[in-house]
Amino acid sequence: MAVPAETPTLFGAYIQSISTSIGWGGQGSSCQFSLVEDPDNGVNINLPTVGTAVFFEYGKFNFGGIFQRYTYQESLSGRIYNVIIESPAKLLDGVQVILDEFQGTSFEPANGFYGPWNGFSTGTKPTEFTYGSPYVYNVWNPFAELENFEKGGNFGNADVNSAGFPVVSLFETLQKFGTRADMNFGGKARFGKSVYGFDFTEVIDAVKANASFYRVKGPVQSLNNILSDVCDVIQHDYFPQVTGTLGLSGGDNVLEFPIIKIRMLSRASQPSSGIIEDFVASAKEGGTLISSAVGKEFSSATTQKVILGAPVTRYYNGLVQNMTSVWGKTSNGSYLLGGPAVSTYTNASHTNQIALQYPDTFGFQRYMATVFELRMALGGMETWTTYKAFQNMAGVEPNSSLYIGDYPPWTSQVYATQAMLQNLADGGAMADALSMINTDLKQVQNAYSKAQNDLQQKIFNVVSKAATEFYGQQFFVRLPFEDGGLDNNLRFIAEDTQYEANWDITDSAWFYDLDGNESSPILDVASYDGTGKLRSHSVFLNDGISDFSAFGSEYAFGFGGFVCTSKGGPDKDIYWDEKTGPSALVRTGAQVRAYDSYTTADEGLTQLASLFFGIYIDPRRYKGTGKQSAQISIPPAVSLPTAIGVPQKSNRYLWGPWYSNFGDQGNAEVVIDNTFAPETFGSRDKLNEAGIATAVAGIGQMEAVESGFIEVAEFPAFNVGDRFALTGPYVTDLNIDVSLDGCKCTYRFNTWTPNFGKLTKYNIDRIARIRTGGIAFAQQQRARREKRPFPKFSIRKGGDGGFADLMHEMFVRMGADGFSQMIDSVTG
Which uninterrupted H or E stretch holds 298? Predict the structure, then answer.
């Protein structure tokens, strides 16, 4: 056994034994001493005040801490003092750190307005809540140190955001608190009978090397909690170690200026296997081994992991070619459907009929209208009745079954025969517009028939409702679906008593085209939700004749120059047809009026004569003073959208999976995390990177790890917290026995399994937070910029024709140069 040249002492007494164990993190370490006196030889104990900072060193072993307590035992075998020194872990809990919100000023309204106020200052200077007397100790405020203007800071200097205080800046500020006396909002801590400085240099080095981007959440945490949080992230353990200057007063073991050094121990890699066995063999060969108990324990770890993400979303652009026109909704909730939207809307003929079934108005009969009739109804009752009169003149009015008697219920300012119109076109003797004023006796009588007028009003109400609420605004669009028909696209959920579709309609979706290519088809950030998913948009061709003023400011350009608006969108209900599959009702949100060649303020007679009879009448033959009764307006048509977006969310598919397999003998773990979606990271590629990183994080290996103890006859060669033989496990317990026979040391240790999951999760959350914050900021800035609505079109009277008037309107709005450029681009 190793014989010490001189018996070690503590507080002036001989040390009989030492027993110490390390407590990782905030658990606290302790060291117990058995002390004996030898008064005959002048060895007498001199105990310092309980609560004093003390330090002991013997060989490679040292321990500093707080003199926590002692007991005195006396018996026939002698007098023994049992002394316990503890690490200052309690102080780490007792130091509170302000990370946000309070910048150190004690504000008093009675002080008035201090600082520049309209060029002058009033009131008294506010009080700064600084560290120590006359206020409190052990409350550190790094936030105020960086942000308090009166003490050299500035608003925003701390760079605190929703994730917290930057970790490197935080510990650099705490390092100043612990070592300098000139700080305003932090200083040396007080505990018991001592004042403690702090040394965070190992912490600073570790966070700079492993997670310099990390942030600590506020507003207030204890120093212990901060250290624990940071060490979990960077795969380290820590413990406080007390050092300082010895012996200036109070005895050789008393620390006059104690410093708490935060020691950092990396657990980023598993200790090397066989180190303990090699040490035992070496001790045997050297003759110092007294006893040992070394073994291996099978470590159970997760070796397989599967990550599943959020439900998949898709943005389906429902093209107009897949739309069916909708003309109304009955009292029982059924929609009145027409034909395909393209063929229905692009045919201006009076033969393009649509059925308006309103049982409440017409009973079992239905009113047959045309798209052009709906257009005329947008101009009001007088314009509509003129169109109806032309239908009757042409003999193509299809609703005679609704008449009261033999005559239609409507009256018009213009009534003529085909012969009269032809005569007017030819410039004959009867070519006077006044002759076209309605003088038909039955028509005049109808004007005074209450029953006829009531019927006319009812019919107009039905047509006007279809024109103002459905014309160009509501459609059914076919949706994509899975193979397998209805059974593989819709399920009934037992006990919940509800149906669920394979794909639901949602408010927004991640955009990618049919080939899977991702893009931002609309450049206006207001077109997306807070996560970056595209909202439903109605898309219109920017053709130069469409009036988009009904959109107000809710429009943007996208999909290659088209005009898009988010005013409308799809209903959430999905309708299934055995032949055509699923479809949904979609709305444009506003009527886009199209100022086509039929549109005119006063030359409708020419257009209607051509439409119904193929007769061209020169407008000059019926325009002029006293001929206003023959001047008919035709309101603009309604433009079709080229597409309406239908965002969908799957009830079957999830993003992922991502997996790792480091051996099929270990535990498996499955994680479903709804933050794993392309919108969280900005693309599917970055999503895949995050998914793979998360699948690998926290994966261990199934292997045997060493544990046990070694008792050797030698002076301490390691300290608690040291790594055994450089690459082995950490020494967690140390017993030292000192006697006349010599010194022996017993080391205890164990190993661990690295786990990097928290840092990976923080990185992923950080990426998501930066992206979400960037979108929110961009949308806030966008909201501050006024977007002017499109100018409303107008058609002036007295022009040469509807289209000519439109060209004149565009010339006025665009100017000569702009108008010429447009004509050149159109004509090539």
Answer: strand 289-298
- Taking residue 213's Cβ as centre, other Cβ atoms within 10 Å add up to 12
Q: What pTM value is reported for the model?
A: 0.71
Nearest to 143 by CA among 122, 125, 164: 164
What 3-state DSSP class applies to 69? strand
pLDDT higher than threshold 70 for residue 444:
no
Cβ atoms of 325 and 344 closer than 8 Å = yes
Span 760-766, average pLDDT: 76
At 377 the pLDDT is 95
Helix or strand holding residue 668 (H, E): strand 667-672
Alpha helix segments (H runs only) across 656-786: 678-681, 684-696, 757-784
Most distant CA pair in the chain: distance in Å? 154
Asked if 23 and 761 count as a contact pair (C-beta separation under 8 A), the reply is no
User: Is the Cα torsion angle 413, 419, 422, 424 positive or negative in sign?
Assistant: negative
Distance between CA atoms of residues 82 and 70, nearest Å: 5
What pLDDT band is residue 383 in, cutting at 50, 70 and 90?
very high
**For residues 350 and 368, what is the distance between their CA atoms, to the nearest angstrom?**
11
Name the H helices within 359-449. Answer: 359-362, 371-377, 381-394, 418-426, 441-447
Round to whole Å and give the CA distance between 343 and 349.
11
Identity at 413, one-letter amino acid code = Q
Range with lowest mean pLDDT among 110-124, 512-526, 558-572, 771-785: 110-124
Q: Do residues 27 and 240 touch, judged by C-beta distance below 8 A?
A: no
Start-to-end CA distance of the chain, whole Å, equals 105
Q: How far apart are CA 42 and CA 223, in angstroms?
A: 44
Q: Are 718 and 747 in contact (CB under 8 A)?
A: yes
Cα gap 257→239, rounded to integer Å: 19
Alpha helices by DSSP H, 629-756: 678-681, 684-696
**735 vs 306, more confident:** 306
According to the per-residue pLDDT averaged within each range, which of 54-63, 125-134, 218-227 is highest? Answer: 218-227
CB count in 10 Å sphere of residue 128: 16
Is residue 1 scored above 70 in pLDDT? no
Q: Rounded distance, CA 389 to CA 394, Å?
A: 9
- pLDDT for the residue numbered 250: 43
CB-side exposure of 375: number of CA atoms within 13 Å? 29
Whether the link from the prior residue into 240 is cis, omega within 30° of 0, is: no
The mean pLDDT value for 587-591 works out to 95
Burial of 484 (0-12, 13-18, 19+ CB in 10 A): exposed
Measured in whole angstroms, the distance separating CA 498 from the mean position of its chain's CA atoms is 30
Dihedral sign, Cα of residue 266, residue 270, residue 275, residue 277: positive
Residues 97, 222: Cα–Cα separation, whole Å: 6
More confident call, 701 vs 84: 84
Locate the DSSP E strands across 189-258: 189-191, 194-199, 215-216, 220-222, 236-243
- Could you tell me the CA-to-CA distances from 449 to 386, 444, 600, 655 in Å, in that order? 18, 9, 32, 68
Q: What is the DSSP letter of 50?
A: T
Confidence of residue 145 (pLDDT cuts 50, 70, 90): very high
What gap in Å lies between CA 274 and CA 282, rounded to an integer? 12
Alpha helices of 62-158 — where are they, by DSSP H? 89-94, 142-147
